[in-house]
Amino acid sequence: MNKKNVAIVGVTGYTGMELVRILTNHPGFEISAVT
What we know:
Layout: E1 4-8, H1 14-24, E2 29-34
Parallel strand pairs: 1-2
């Protein structure tokens, strides 16, 4: 399965941190950039 690259904007907030936590453990996504 090909991983999708994802950039997340606003990781300093609660929602951004939860999104990082979820996507870090997801086999289909790779976090490529955060702001």
